[in-house]
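Dear colleague,

Thank you for sharing your sequence with our group. We've completed the structure prediction you requested, and as agreed, I am returning the results in plain text so they can be pasted directly into your records. Please verify that the sequence below matches your submission; if there's any discrepancy, let me know and we will rerun it promptly.
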Amino acid sequence: MDTAEGGAESRVSREIAFEGPVFDVFSDTVRLPGGNTARRDVVHHPGSVVIVPVVSDDIVLVSQYRYAIGAQVLELPAGTLDPGESPDAAASRELQEETGFTAGRLIEIGRWCPTPGYSDEVMVFFVASDLTPGHASPEEDEAIQVVRLGRDAALRSVRSGEIHDLKTAVGILWLSTFGAGSEA
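Please find the predicted structure tokens below.
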């Protein structure tokens, strides 16, 4: 990511605060532009993909329980990049695992940082079309239900707050604004 001119901070030291299977947390001491130092806790994430699967006038979503917020969440298929995996390979893998669909066409539409205040994660978004149905193969710790929602209904669900997952709102709003066949 580019750094805004005049606001760059430089790392003086780094300590690992937590190592996990998906992400690590670092506690960094940084030098501020004025010369003072400050602490920055940073979640290092390998990156993720978000897929906006389109079938006719429907968007394919998944519903799953999210422990961190204690709720069932309606969201776009998504997942973390495996080591050495390209975003397009991860998008194809996650789409098949979570929904059973394979995409005949996969278009990258953008890269967004969901929480730049404390994480270096970059989410790579794709629109998937020309879908062929198949059998989902979710991971052992995932209980996923596939849900098809018309584009207008999906947009209304974002507006009403029924869909409150940020990556899903971004994907649906992008599709509503630019359409499935658009190049970013």
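Summary note from our side: The first helix runs from residue 87 to 99.

Kind regards,
the structure core
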